[in-house]
Amino acid sequence: MDLFNRPDGLQDIRDKVIAGRRLTPEDGLRLFQTRDLNALASLADFANQRRNGRRASYILNRYINYSNYCILSCQFCAFSRKKRDNDGFQLTEEQMVAKAREALALGITELHIVGGLHPSLPFSHYTGFLRALKALDPRLQLKCFTAVEILHLAWLAKKSVRDTLLELKEAGLESLTGGGAEIFRKEVRSRIATGKESGAEYLEVHGTWHNLGGRSTCTMLYGHVESLEDRIDHLDQLRRQQDLSRGFTGFIPLPYQPENNGIPVPHAPSGFDQLRTIAVSRLYLDNIDHITAYWVGMGLKMAQIALSHGADDLHGTILEEHIFHMAGAKSPQMTAEADLVRAIREAGREPVQRNTFYEPIRVWGARPETDAAHATHAADRATPQATAAGSLG
Fold first, then answer.
1. Per-residue pLDDT at 382
2. Residue spans of alpha helices (H) in 58-198
3. pLDDT tens, 222-266?
4. Which residues pair with 141 in a beta bridge?
5. What does the alpha-carbon distance between residue 69 and residue 87 come to, in Å, rounded to a whole number?
6. Residue 250 bridge partners (DSSP)
7. All domains in the chain, ordered by first residue
8. Quick check: helix, strand or coil at residue 82?
9. 182 vs 354: CA distance, rounded Å
10. Distances (CA, A) of 255 to 5, 166, 186, 297, 317
11. Section 361-365 average pLDDT
């Protein structure tokens, strides 16, 4: 293999990766600093294919943002509103059930549910809508709440984080979302998210959930006021938490959207920065199986390119995303399953429909004519009202 086999001072990192040895923070910083994106991509793609083969996944899901009223005022957030604002919203349980029922008819397998820290809703409201949504179809997977929402719900319930999570789990919660990680370093966090939970609290919530047998994703918001050293520190803390609790299923780097918020950043991360962040994340997070290229923040074409830079997942069909779009994202509000399958095939990968835990539901061939031979329908992972194979085109 001829990776980094050039006079750029990175031969030792290449040797470590090929040998399967762990990179140090200093190694990670040197990878971020290289300008040779092609060599970086080749090494990250090697690491990804060694772990995941040539498969790339997606999920059929719907986002439900139940409310954007929030007691916090994070500087980077274009989503939150106060009760006095005329563009705030709050969904009733009935409205959430109606949205979920519509999405089930389209074949979705997951609801991704987050919202602001609402100033007045009781804890029973959250357990109530979880039970109502789960009652629609027991196979429907509920991926809900960021770590700061869990801390807020624990305060509402007047219970420990552990007991709050147990009660939410009993009501139907199956996975925590990874949102809200932002950048862990205190100095950066205080500049972009004053009053939000600390990085240590974020990791403690996820670690507690993992120790209860739960799984979750994790994220990093990059491209604002943080340094490359801050990014590596963030990745290192995630890696150390995964060593302890082993519950992160995937990592999702989120490119910052600079419009409509209080942080004066002139533009979103460049394509170069997005791809190198994907690549370094794959190489550094050696104990997290999956790296997601979040098409909502990157655009589908850039996410497609990321599949050769260390990513192995394109996230999902999404349907009605608010948080990134209110911050200025220009991507569509949803993407059809056929478009995700086509993007994966065009990248030379084998499309796989997955569930919330990145487990395969249906494996498609690398070419349309091989679909019938490759499609699998595992009875124990059957999807709620699954989309017919013929709809992929």
1. 37
2. 93-105, 123-136, 147-157, 161-171, 186-192
3. 999 999 999 999 999 999 999 999 999 999 999 998 876 678 788
4. 110
5. 10
6. 217, 290
7. 11-49 (no CATH), 55-358 (3.20.20.70)
8. coil
9. 26
10. 30, 32, 20, 6, 19
11. 92
Can you tell me which residue has the tokens 């608010």? Answer: 322
What's the whole-number average pLDDT of the chain?
A: 87
State residue 32's pLDDT score.
Answer: 98
Q: Which sign, positive or negative, has the C-alpha torsion 127, 130, 133, 136?
A: negative
**Beta-carbon-side half-sphere exposure of residue 91 (alpha carbons within 13 Å):** 20
* AA identity, residue 191: R
Q: Report pTM.
A: 0.89
Cα separation, 225 vs 133, whole angstroms: 39
- For the chain, the residue count is 393
Cβ atoms 216, 232 nearer than 8 A: no
Digit-coded pLDDT (tens) for 209-228: 999 999 999 999 999 999 99
Q: Is 228 helix (H, G, I), strand (E, B) or coil?
A: helix
Q: Quick one: tokens of 392?
A: 């992929």
359 vs 57: CA distance, rounded Å: 9
Q: What whole-number distance in Å separates Cα of residue 388 and Cα of residue 28?
A: 43
